[in-house]
Predict the structure.
Amino acid sequence: MNEPANDRDYVQSMMRGALCRCPACGEGKLFRKFLKVADECPSCGEELHHQRADDFPAYLVMFIVGHIVVSLILAVEIAYKPSYLIHALMWGPLTLALTLALLQPVKGAIVGLQWALRMHGFDGKGGDELDPVPAPATPAQ
Ligand SMILES: [Zn+2]
């Protein structure tokens, strides 16, 4: 059975992932721990272990949080010129809080996008033809 490659709504899948829900059904929990994706959806059984978000969510979160925090630092510095101690007390916790708040939704959105684009075995064929695992080298005899 050949399914069209674009039958999965990637915006909906990313939104479901950002809400930490299964990109396929939107019901089951996507994560079994803070950043550990469940092997399969507890609601619909969709296999989720194919995801390979790797470091991309962290890079995206750094990009987003950096733009927010640096903009705020510059705005506050120009407007109020607080001491460096005040800066450190304000921006350190904000940076940590934003990072922890965004990591899971961003990773969920990335997994949702991978699912929608049928990447890394999300094509239902069970394999990952683009990144095959190489056969172990046999010693020459
Ligand atoms: Zn599901």
Summary: The chain has a mean pLDDT of 87. Residues 22, 24-25, 27-28, 41, 43-44, 46 surround zinc ion (CB under 6 Å). Helices lie at 10-18, 56-80, 84-116.
